[in-house]
Amino acid sequence: MWRVNEHGRLYAQGKPLSHDLRLLIINKIINNGGNRATGIFHGKYTDIARQLGVSSAVVSNIWKRYCEDGSISPKKNTGGNPSHLSQGDLQYVEFLKQQKPTITYDEIMQQLHEFGDLPYGTTSTTALSEAVRHRLPSGKEYSFKKLNIVAQERFTLQNMAYTQLFIDYLHEKDPYTLKFFDECGLKLPQHASRTYGHAPIGERAIELQRYAETPNTTVNLMCSLTGVDYANTVNGSADTIDFLRFFEEAYHSENPRTARPVLEPGSVIVMDNCATHHNQGGQILQEFLNDLEIELVYMPAYSPDFNPAEYVFGKMRTVMKYSFGNNTDITVAQCIQNMYTSLELISPSDMKGFFEVTGYLQV
């Protein structure tokens, strides 16, 4: 809100003088004999202040700042409880954030009191937040963003070797023969979990966690370059019977866009290593698909980013979110109906993008 000061000049409370006005103050002082090297000015600050419609204290402060460091810009308003973090503390804070991006400021503070140099009661969480965003030793500025969770088990030597074989094998396949199967959970209400964490600007926030899901309703889905081939839902978590029932239903169904059978000879079905996909259920499915001349390929462990179906689920959830808005009074039946409607919006163009974003499927 603009106001008029006692000198008749418009100003906004809390907003510093413009760069041009500050520069004009400096030039007037120099033109009237001001010496930056010594800081001496034999004139009167009040005369310049009266000419420009500002206070004499403002003129004096701008001149002193210019003499000290040559800066014309206003000082940054730090405010709050000043930080007492040592360089070692800052290094430890950055280490903690790199190891666990979701760690809270209270948890960091507890670690600093126990293992760092920080005395109790000397630094606030506000000062710690400012340090994380702007003062860490690497020089990187951290921001709060959506968390990317990566399982530790993904990086075993055996799984990394299989990953390379998997990529090389599918890279040689006709992408139009590939069909990806996956499940996801629809939760009502959303389970409380940390999905955001800090990381340097321009970098993803990645945290190693053990995988655990407890969906209210399970969505089973198979997709290809033409779109979503077939989908169904299960109340609660899906078991081996639900897994096999999905493929039985898919066998008797047609692709909604091509009107061709969902399961065709020559296709390659790709799925993850969920326990229900292996063991007896996997053996029964393997025999069933062999009779149909369809190949079954398992993905590397804990590699959901290799599955285009994950991106289908991402768009599905986005469409559902905007459809429901802020309405929290939603039944499971309404959620499922909206889910099917959102899947109808997945186009071949979407699927082409989902295939390409995996990084190993060439279309």
Automatic annotation (TrEMBL):
PROSITE patterns: PAIRED_2. SUPFAM superfamilies: Homeodomain-like. GO terms for biological process: regulation of DNA-templated transcription. Keywords: Paired box. SMART domains: PAX. Pfam families: DDE_3, PAX. It comes from the Eukaryota. GO terms for molecular function: DNA binding. This is Ankyrin repeat domain-containing 34B. It comes from Paramuricea clavata (Red gorgonian).
